[in-house]
Amino acid sequence: DVKVTQSSRYLVKRTGEKVFLECVQDMDHENMFWYRQDPGLGLRLIYFSYDVKMKEKGDIPEGYSVSREKKERFSLILESASTNQTSMYLCASSLTPYEQYFGPGTRLTVT
Amino acid sequence: TQLLEQSPQFLSIQEGENLTVYCNSSSVFSSLQWYRQEPGEGPVLLVTVVTGGEVKKLKRLTFQFGDARKDSSLHITAAQPGDTGLYLCAGTGAGSYQLTFGKGTKLSVIP
C-alpha cells in the first residue's frame, strides 16, 4: 500500500512565523502535490513537483514556497504565516497522471 | 478552466436506502476518480474510470463514466453508516498531472 505521511496532524502558529510542513511518501512516486482544503472552496492546488528539484505553481501559490531535495520528501513553506492561511493542508503523491494518494492532512491554525 | 460540479451538496438518508451522486462538467476528461474523505482525514481513492461508458463496481458502490467523458455518477446500494463521509470526484485533462476536484457531496447515513 502507498503510504504518505505528514509531519504534524495539528499545528498552531502565530502570525508572521515561518512554517514548514513536511510530507514523505514511500512508493518512489515521481509526482507530489500540496493542496489546501477550505469549507465551500474544496481542494485547491498550491504547488506540485514532477521530479526532484522541479516545482510548478498551482492555482494558489501566493504566500507559499516548496522544496523537493529528495524524491520521497516534499515540503511546503509559509514564509510569513497569516491568519488567512488557516486551513487543512493535504499532501499527495502519484505515479500516473491520475490516482493521487493523500496523506492524513495537517490542520494549521494561525493566530 | 475545467470545472466539476457535484450534486447534491448534502445528502442525509436512512440506513438501507439507495442513493446516487453526480459529477458533471462541460469539459472532456481523460480520466475521472472518486475519493471518500472522513472528517479530519485525507481523501482515499475509491476508483478510477478512463473509458467513456465504463462501469465499475466496488461492493455496494457502482461508478459510471459518461459516454462523452464529461460526467460521472456514484450509486450506493443499501447504504450503511460506514458510508458516511465526503465524496469527491476529480478529473484529469489529456496529458495533465493536475486533478480538478469537485467540491464534494457530504453524505450522512443515519442508523
Give me a quick take on this structure:
The complex is a heterodimer of chains A (111) and B (111). By secondary structure, chain A is mainly beta.
Write up what this structure looks like.
The complex is a heterodimer of chains A (111) and B (111). The mean pLDDT of chain A is 94. Chain A has 111 residues and is mainly β. Chain A contains no helices and 11 strands. In chain A, a hairpin with a 6-residue loop joins strand 5 and strand 6. In chain B, 0% of the residues lie in helices and 52% in strands. Chain B is mainly β and 111 residues long. Chain A binds chain B through residues 4, 9, 31, 40-43, 45, 48, 50, 58, 90, 92, 94, 97-105, 107, and chain B through 30-31, 33, 35, 40-45, 48, 88, 90, 92, 95-99, 101-104.
Question: Features of this protein?
Answer:
heterodimer; A: four-stranded antiparallel sheet; B: 111 residues; six-stranded mixed sheet
Q: What is the structural class of chain A?
A: mainly beta
Query: Which series of helices and strands of chain A comes N to C?
Result: EEEEEEEEEEE
Rg result of chain B: 13 Å
- Which residues of chain A sit in consecutive blocks of at least 5 with pLDDT less than 50? none
Unreliable stretches of chain B: none
**Main sheet attributes: strand count, strand direction, barrel closure of chain B:** 6 strands, mixed
* Helical stretch tally of chain B: 0
What is the straight-line distance between the termini of chain A? 37 Å
Number of helices of chain A: 0
Oligomer: heterodimer
Topology at a glance:
The complex is a heterodimer of chains A (111) and B (111).
Chain A lengths: L3 E3 L3 E4 L5 E7 L5 E8 L3 E8 L6 E2 L6 E7 L2 E6 L8 E8 L6 E2 L3 E5 L1
Chain B lengths: L4 E3 L2 E5 L4 E6 L6 E7 L6 E6 L5 E4 L2 E5 L5 E6 L8 E8 L7 E2 L3 E6 L1
Parallel strand pairs in B: 2-11
Antiparallel strand pairs in B: 1-3, 3-8, 4-5, 4-9, 6-7, 7-8, 9-10, 9-11
